[in-house]
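Run log, item B.
One chain of 212 residues. Sequence copied directly from the ordering sheet:
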Amino acid sequence: MEKIKVIGVGPGGKDYLLPVAQKAIEEAEILVGGHRALALFNQLKKEKRVIDARLENVAAFLNQNKGKKVAVLVSGDPGLYSFLDYLLKHFGEEEIEVIPGLSPVQVAFARARMSWQDAVIISLQGREKEKMLACVVTPAVKESPKVALLTDQDMPPQKIAAYLLAQGVAQKIMLIGDNLSYPQERFVRASLAQVPQLKEQFDNCVVLITNG
């Protein structure tokens, strides 16, 4: 029986896609993933299925296509805030093969020239962001020397910084990696107090918050 291959496609730039992932994707008959991940492989003439909010429909599609070579593409690494956890609840471990990828968090710390074994990593994507800021992010920033946040347009760095400042967090540095690995990549470093004044719009970013 063919296994469902859950493949990390990295931060998005094709140069950051691991060769083992590229090979598995080329060998697959069906590609399943978000719009951004699938767009990396527009040149491949394969059946494609978009992962949307109706995850149960995606699981049903995978069940219907058992026996075919299916690759589920996830951004970054499958082990970090991805579709993998959902799949493991609906399929046996023996039915799934995981191929790792570079996480945008790794790339952000590389751009910052910092190690990250002591970092707290939090995702705000697809979550109750205001509650996460109050109950998870603020305590982590106060207690940890390095915090990495995966966020989006609904919770931009400016809003995060303004909230933290209102909670009395001040002596911190924020590093913002936007569209990491893409041609339009930006990497901004500023004090927490400076960030709310930034005029840039950040689309797809990793935020690092470190001691000043």
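Observations after the first pass:
- The beta strands are 4-8, 30-33, 47-50, 70-74, 96-99, 120-123, 146-152, 172-178, 186-191, 204-211.
- The mean pLDDT is 94.
Flagged for discussion on Thursday.
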